[in-house]
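Researcher: We're teaching a course module on how sequence relates to structure. For the next exercise, students receive a sequence and then see the predicted structure as tokens, so they can try to spot secondary structure elements on their own. Here is the exercise chain.
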Amino acid sequence: MEKIKKTNIIWDKKDLLGLEELSAGEIELILKTAISFKEISERSIKKVPALRGKTIAHLFLEPSTRTRISFELAAKRLSADTIGISGSGSSILKGETMRDTAQNIEAMKVDMIILRHSASGSAHILAKNLKAGVINAGDGCHEHPTQALLDMFTIKEKLGAIKGKKVSIIGDIKHSRVARSNIIGLCKLGAEVTVCAPKTLMPIEIEKMGCKRTYSLEEAMRSADVINVLRLQKERQKKGLLPTIREYIEEYGVTLQKVEKFCKKNIVIMHPGPINRGIEMSQDVADSDKAVILEQVTNGIAIRMAVMFLLSQYKQK
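Model: And here is the predicted structure for the students to work with:
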């Protein structure tokens, strides 16, 4: 992995709410910081005292496995004290608002809150009402900044650079916060981004984000250095967006046969997880040597360590 050129960027943000709020330099600073934190995770003793004495709350009000565990591991490897709160185990079930819950947590002198919520904009609302730092771990269909950051980190690690690379994002673009954050971040760092989906799963005027659109899986695959395949998010879809799952698989499912027929030999295949094997991606593709899905998971810890470390450097004005 080629190291990013030294920059004079100084982190001055209390929160990480999305990549839309970050400059290219700030994104590069996170990626650069993550390089050293990945090395820590490869040691026999995977711990540094960078956040010793800090307390981080994981407020996950929507189901999560990889993101929640990754944030928890990242915090512990930085020596922070952590508390985990789920929707089913919080006073929100008793009628308390998310804001009241978070302010009560902050009153216990918590330094940082990691929020996962089903409502778009929830992290922004929380950040406006708290002195503690807020990290968006996914808000509705809006953004998932750390997922996009770990995806970009993985691309740079595999291909040596992001600028000029052609990245195709395939699948349920309309409902994907991962797609939004990836488009924003990749375009800021100079990648050429193409999105591919059925018309019913393609946002209107998506080109305004700086990407190209296509409804042809073959076109998206032929042009790409990287394909990032998204989960079909049935829980967020309204009825009637797809005729049948079988037809979606035939038109947009990424199979080994299609990869061998359409893709470059050195194609990098990504997926943010969880994978619906046999739907958006076949089992033989997910398990192939072209797929870097488990490397993405590993890199997620380094990225989240970097983000928490940088936010801890913020000084209240």
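Model: If you want an answer key for the exercise: The chain has two domains: 24-143+298-312, 145-293. Confidence is low (pLDDT under 50) at residues 1-5.
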